[in-house]
Design brief:
The complex is a heterodimer of chains A (335) and B (522). Chain A has one domain. By secondary structure, chain A is an all-alpha fold. Chain A has a two-stranded antiparallel ribbon. The longest helix of chain A is centred in the middle third of the chain and has 32 residues. Helices cover 78% and strands 1% of the residues of chain A. Chain B is mainly alpha-helical. Chain B has one domain. Helices cover 64% and strands 5% of the residues of chain B. In chain B, helix 1 crosses helix 6, helix 6 runs antiparallel to helix 12 and helix 8 crosses helix 11. Classes of the chains: A mainly alpha (335), B mainly alpha (522). The interface between A and B is large, with 73 and 81 residues.
């Protein structure tokens, strides 16, 4: 595998890792209006993602950084073409981040509830917006000569963007529900599992449709296999949820995403951003990439750095591995 | 305004705002880590309370720094895509490595520190904080290396093979060991310590005075908390100020070589002088940007010393440098669509005089104010004294803002001072091989002014609201002090407080018994 392909894989892994990890904290936050009607449930839900969301978000920062670092031609075409959606994503991520920390800063229940709503809204915006961006970069954007967007500010807001947005949102919501059923106990655990059981098949559809569309355009045998794996994993998720095996269901639901994104990126390769104007303007791995020297340097640094990062991040997951239960009511009242 | 100007305002506003949080994160993180270490080593109650109190301010501030930092990584692509294409081979990799090697460390271990109270072994818990703080410092190094590469591009050659000129990296180590980066990094780190020191001094003095007026005995733990905060903050501020001056001098001497126009503009020095005089104050017409109209009060010889370390050597003036640069890089922008409205227009190689001149003086002045306050605080608290001077204490509280303003002014000076270039030509490289890029050609083609206006206004309004909330939270929390609503003496660790989350982590048999650790996550 040449270095450009290796870094395409690395970038794809980072984006997928981001969707997998931040997906459940987006999902938990998105489910607060549905599953967290009582303050105690809301607090419990937020506690499951409290120590993890910031580390998960660094996957996004690293994914964007690696896209820029390895494929500046992709980064510099994709971001300005989707200017407003990306700005919206930033606004969502900013308000969400500060709300996570600031909601504790008063012992007023209304203050807490208001910031919790901000977390939920920010999560919807960020998940939808990034889904739109990923949908557009794999299914096509109106870019012309020199990677410059053709048309006005909204010319990139097309059905691929909408499909990507719905796919990531729907996947994340069920992902959050499965995560909650795995990480909590008692009433919330059962309601979360029931929610996942009910919606998992439907929620997988847009994601599978997205993967299927990219495959139809440029897929091969391997990506056909990964697409089949994704479909099978949906069934497995449902069966394991029905059997009450949350751990296995969580793994299977993760496979749904991993296999779908493997199909999306695998089928799209070597195109990183197809042009809807003319295939001559497609952004390719080869034309978007940096020099071999820079790729070599990054490969060495990432080769040493990434295992360490994965090691300590996995370790913190292990430290916070236990199921959480709702606090006794008097503590709730004091808080 | 055209896209270029709006995008520049957007970059300026978002970056200066982001850099209000960053120095506090770096400086206060270091100090909280020291406090936490002192608690683990000595077991003394005041160190734990200091860790809890300052740690919470650190966290309130940290999260806004992280959130606003996100914008930075995206806006190079969103608004400056031509720049990103040009520098991608070197600039992007530095950003990506910053994320991989620093941000993961910072965020993962800070999460562990916040939620790890009483949950993981004491020393491991302390190590988690240090790991996060080291992450912040590594991150500072990478981003300053990236910025310094724009100020003084090294380790690259100009590659025109694809038709479009690009910077191509040939020496990654040279980028990381750029002398500009080493100077700017050390300058920024010690300046961050001034920010943290000033905060400790201001809030500490206010609490000491309040307690004294309320007749609270000095034997209480909390008295020690504030006294120690003032002493630590004062010494850190003073030491950091000396280091700020030393590293600033180093950076300044480099800049006289690498970007002479920035430094001459900072002095409003029009014609070459030998020996050159340092300007203390300038009168009239700085705003017209006509160097010859400026009249300033000067001290002879000093500028030669600042620039070259002697009292006789010449320092080139703005007018002479303008001519040199026009000769080397053209009197007008190339008549090329990539320069937008600026194509074919004359180039002004001098930065905005008023901004560089006053930015430079504001930076130094604010640093001096902060150092003066630190000296006052140390004097006023000598041998167990408690300051009661209203002016002294409120003045110190007001002076908490001084190092923030100084930091912002320093960055505005350094960034505005390299205009009209976004990547400044490195004078050590032969003209034909120089890698440089004009700001006018850096902006994204194809995005509309409406889009950039939309993002500028949304981000500015959002940042404004967040600033009000953050300021309010910090003020309210700082007023509450260590033991909120505490009316009883506080003997030893954890006694007497009515406020649950100010207590020490109770020994916990059950890992997930309650979320009071979470309440620490303010």
């Amino acid at each position: 595998m040449d270095l450009q392909t290796l870094w395409f894989v690395a970038v794809a892994v980072l984006w997928t890792g981001f969707l997998l990890l931040e997906g459940f904290d987006f999902g938990v936050a998105a489910l607060i209006p549905v599953l967290g009607r009582k303050p105690a449930d809301r607090h419990l839900m937020l506690r499951t993602i409290g120590p993890l969301w910031d580390g998960n978000e660094v996957w996004l920062v690293t994914a964007v950084g690696a896209t820029f670092a390895a494929f500046p031609g992709w980064y510099a075409t994709w971001l300005p073409a989707m200017y407003l959606p990306f700005v919206l994503v930033l606004v969502g991520l900013i308000v969400r981040a500060v709300a996570f920390e600031w909601r504790h800063s008063s012992h007023d229940e209304r203050w807490d509830a208001a910031w919790t709503r901000v977390i939920t809204t920010g999560s919807y915006i960020a998940a939808g917006g990034l889904g739109a961006a990923l949908g557009a970069t794999t299914l096509g954007l109106p870019v012309g000569e020199g990677g410059v967007r053709v048309g006005g500010a909204f010319s990139g807001w097309s059905w691929p963007a909408l499909l990507g947005a719905v796919a990531v949102l729907a996947y994340s919501v069920v992902h959050g529900a499965v995560f909650l059923s795995l990480k909590t106990d008692g009433d919330l655990r059962h309601r979360a599992r029931a929610f996942a059981l009910r919606w998992a098949p439907l929620a997988a559809l847009p994601l599978l449709a997205w993967a299927g569309l990219v495959w139809l355009r440029s897929g091969g045998v391997v990506t056909a296999a990964t697409l089949v794996v994704a479909v099978v994993a949906v069934v497995v998720t449902w069966v394991r949820l029905a059997a009450g095996r949350e751990g296995q269901a969580f793994t299977a639901w993760a496979v749904v995403l991993l296999a779908s994104m493997a199909t999306v990126f695998g089928a799209a390769f070597p195109v990183v951003l197809p042009s809807t104007i003319d295939p001559a303007f497609d952004v390719l791995v080869s034309t978007a990439s940096v020099s071999d020297y820079t790729l070599t340097v990054m490969t060495w640094v990432a080769g040493f750095g990434l295992p360490v990062v994965l090691g300590y991040q996995a370790w913190t997951y292990w430290v916070f591995r236990k199921r959480l239960t709702a606090e006794p009511e008097h503590v709730e009242a004091a808080a | 305004m055209d896209v270029l100007e709006i995008a520049r305002w957007q970059f300026g506003i978002t970056t200066v705002y982001h850099f209000l949080m960053v120095p506090l994160t770096i400086g206060l993180g270091l100090l909280v880590a020291v406090m936490h270490t002192m608690w683990v080593r000595t077991g003394k109650a005041e160190w734990l309370r200091m860790t809890r109190f300052w740690g919470r301010i650190y966290l309130i501030n940290f999260v806004l720094g992280v959130a606003t930092g996100l914008v930075q990584e995206f806006q190079f692509g969103l608004a400056w895509s031509s720049y990103s294409r040009f520098v991608g081979d070197v600039f992007g990799s530095v950003l990506a490595l910053e994320a991989l090697l620093a941000f993961f460390l910072e965020s993962t271990f800070l999460g562990l520190w916040i939620f790890g109270w009483g949950r993981i072994p004491k020393k491991l818990h302390l190590a988690a904080l240090w790991a996060a703080v080291v992450g912040s410092i590594i991150s500072a190094y990478f981003i300053i290396a990236a910025n310094s590469w724009m100020q003084h591009p090294v380790g690259v050659v100009l590659d025109t093979s694809s038709g479009e000129p690009r910077a191509r990296q040939v020496d990654f180590l040279a980028v990381l060991t750029n002398n500009t980066a080493l100077a700017a990094f050390s300058h920024a780190i010690v300046a961050s310590l001034m920010v943290a020191g000033g905060l400790l001094v201001g809030i500490g003095l206010w609490h000491l005075r309040k307690r004294s007026l309320a007749g609270r005995p000095t034997t209480e733990v909390d008295h020690q908390v504030w006294r120690r905060s003032v002493r630590v903050g004062g010494y850190v501020s003073l030491a950091a100020f000396m280091l700020v001056a030393l590293t600033g001098d180093w950076q300044g001497k480099l800049m006289f070589q690498q970007q002479p126009l920035k430094m001459s503009s900072a002095e409003a020095l029009c014609t070459t002088e030998a020996p050159a005089s340092f300007s203390i104050f300038a009168l009239s017409k700085l705003g017209s940007n006509e160097c010859d109209d400026v009249r300033s009060f000067t001290v002879p010889y000093v500028l030669s010393f600042l620039a070259n370390g002697d009292f006789s050597s010449p320092v080139p003036g703005v007018n002479d440098l303008q001519e040199q640069y026009a000769e080397a890089y053209g009197a007008t922008y190339p008549d090329d669509p990539s320069f937008g409205d600026k194509a074919g227009e004359p180039i002004d190689y001098a930065p905005v005089l008023a901004v560089t001149y006053w930015g430079f003086r504001l930076m130094i002045g604010m640093g001096a104010v902060s150092a003066g306050v630190a000296a006052y605080a140390l004097w006023a608290t000598r041998r167990g004294r408690v300051p009661t001077s209203r002016i002294g204490v409120y003045g110190s509280l007001l002076a908490v803002g001084a190092p923030f303003v100084g930091n912002a002014a320093g960055w505005i000076f350094t960034e505005m001072g390299r205009q009209p270039f976004v990547v400044y030509p490195n004078p050590d490289v032969p003209r034909a091989d120089q890698v440089y890029f004009f700001t006018a050609q850096a902006v994204s083609p194809g995005i509309s002014a409406t889009e950039v206006w939309t993002s500028l206004i949304s981000l500015a309004v959002l940042y404004g609201v967040l600033a009000v909330v953050e300021f309010g939270l910090i003020v309210r929390f700082a007023r509450q002090g260590v033991t909120d609503g505490d009316t009883t003496p506080t003997p030893g660790i954890g006694g007497g407080s009515t406020h649950r989350d100010d207590d020490d982590p109770p020994p916990r048999a059950d890992d997930d018994a309650s979320d009071d650790v979470l309440q620490f996550a303010y």
